[in-house]
Amino acid sequence: MLKAVLVIGDGMADRPLKELNWKTPLETAHKPSLNHVAKTGISGIIDPISPGIPPGSDTATLALLGYNPLKTYSGRGPLEALGSNIEISRGDVALRCNFATVDENLVILNRRAGRIENEDGSKLAASLRKVKLKESDVDFLFKNTVQHRAVLVLHGSKLSPSVSDSDPGKAGMKILEAKPLDKSEEAERTAIILNELTCKFHEVLKKHPVNIERTKHGKLPANAILCRGAGVVPNVTSLKEIYDVDAVCVAATSLVRGACKAAGMKLVDVKGATGTPQTDFIAKARTAVQMLKQNDFVLLHVKAPDVASHDGNIRQKIEVIEKIDKMVGYILENVNLEETVLAVTSDHTTSSFTGNHEGDPVPVVISGFGVRIDGVESFGERECARGGLHRIRGMDLMPILMSLLGRTKKFGF
Ligand code: ZN
Ligand code: ZN
After folding, report:
1. Nearest Cα to Cα of residue 81 among 69, 92, 96
2. What pLDDT was estimated at residue 275?
3. Are residues 305 and 385 in the same domain?
4. Residues 6+ apart with CB under 8 A from 282
5. Could you tell me if residue 410 is inside a domain?
6. Which ligand has its closest atom nearest to the C-alpha of 56?
7. Which residues contact 209 (CB under 8 A, 6 or more apart)?
8. Please, which of 79, 83, 98, 386 could form a disulfide with 257 given CB 3.0 to 4.6 Å?
């Protein structure tokens, strides 16, 4: 049976830049392996969501896994929770949270509590978990993930994700009251619970020994929790059920891991994989190749190009693209393309000029047994646009890959 690897360079696609003589970082980078995939494959461009719509990494990943993002996306919080190995079931409401520093009037001084260390975050989170809610039929889980980041999961009956954020998104503003976003009893109840937690969390945090110690050492106290992005687990059918494939996700970013977990994929942890430009690219490639032995589909995601683009660091973006090229080189050396389909794409365009995700299409290439090789010889935004795949939607990629694997079902007789 054929197998498939999908390599996703997060935010790898870009717009032409003046600094690069109006070429993109991908067009500028030295990338013999990516070009080899283009030469031996079929190329095209993808609108991750639809033309002109700037995608988030969450909606784009769901799309690249074959789901209609407009129908399945149900918020960032639950994906973040799933990706951080937090169990969350249907009916639970999950939110992304930040440890923050506020003054006595609950005005935010720092949204990240000075990027609080993981150890301090863990101690504070342990105390927050002891808070008791008035409503006895609802319980909650609060877990810190990395630095100031945390996840809150509400579990119980009659909850709703239709609540507004308590996080105003910037310093200098007061913590917001969470409000119901519809007229349902559930939304109202959920908002009340969230506001109760905001108050109780602040009471615990402001006198917590960890924060007293932080203040003594001139560090910002993490004396409040800001919440945003309420959502429920997306209601999607697993890849196993749709295509009968055992699928694995090699990614460090919790949001991408969460989307993969929602699709029923196994998550693997790679030593040295950090979700930053300093990640161990080859360790990830090695893990992907190993995973392919026992599984049918491996998604290999690298966050680094997106980080460089948000920082407007063109040089670094080119460097990480060249490292992704070496990673793809490792895969080419270690898998047999007569037995494996290899695809490379990006989840969205991130402009190094604007520092934002943009709605431009991204390049894609598929190489392996059965593909109709076209004349494209280089992997880039403009070169791939000349290829035989033409212009497809994000959600079209997975059926195309699975059809090459012989895993799609006939429609009609
Ligand atoms: Zn992304
Ligand atoms: Zn981004």
Report:
1. 96
2. 82
3. yes
4. 326, 327, 330
5. no
6. 1
7. none
8. 83
Q: From the CB of residue 1, how many other CB atoms can be counted at a distance below 10 Å?
A: 8
Identify the CA nearest to 253 among candidates 112, 366, 142, 347. Answer: 347
Q: Which residues contact 101 (CB under 8 A, 6 or more apart)?
A: 108, 109, 110, 113, 114, 220, 221, 222, 223, 224
- Under 8 Å between Cβ of 259 and 241: no
Strand partners for 108: 102
Helix ranges (H only) for 93-208 are 118-128, 185-206
Distance from residue 14's CA to the centre of ligand 2 (Å): 12
Among 22-36, 80-94, 331-345, where is mean pLDDT lowest?
80-94
Mean pLDDT, all residues of the chain: 95
Query: Could you report the per-residue pLDDT of 306-357, keeping only the tens digit for each?
Result: 999 999 999 999 999 999 999 999 999 999 999 999 999 999 999 999 999 9
Are 58 and 150 members of one domain?
A: no
Question: Which of these, 66, 15, 26, 25, lies nearest to 397 by C-alpha position?
Answer: 66
**Structural domain harbouring 33:** 3-73+235-404
Q: Are residues 151 and 297 in the same domain?
A: no
Calculate mean pLDDT across residues 63-73. 97
Amino acid identity, residue 298?
V
Ligand 2 centroid to 55 CA: how many Å? 9
Distance 294 CA to ligand 2 centre (A): 31
Percent of the chain with pLDDT over 70: 100
Over 90: is that where the pLDDT of 228 sits?
Answer: yes
189 and 164 fall within a common domain? yes
pTM: 0.90
Q: How far is the CA of 347 from the centre of ligand 1 (A)?
A: 5
Interatomic CA distance for residues 159 and 77, integer angstroms: 15
Same domain, residue pair 223 and 333: no
**pLDDT-based confidence at 276, cuts 50/70/90?**
confident
* pLDDT given for residue 89 in this prediction: 86
pLDDT band at 384 (very low <50, low <70, confident <90, very high): very high
What pLDDT score does 352 carry? 98
The pLDDT value recorded for residue 114 is: 87
**Ligand 1 center to 61 CA (angstroms):** 8
Q: Collapsing DSSP states into helix, strand and coil, what is residue 39?
A: helix
Q: Kindly give the distance from the C-alpha atom of residue 303 to the centroid of ligand 1, in angstroms, as a whole number.
A: 7
Rounded CA-CA distance 247/239 in Å is 7
Asked whether residue 409 is domain-assigned, the answer is: no
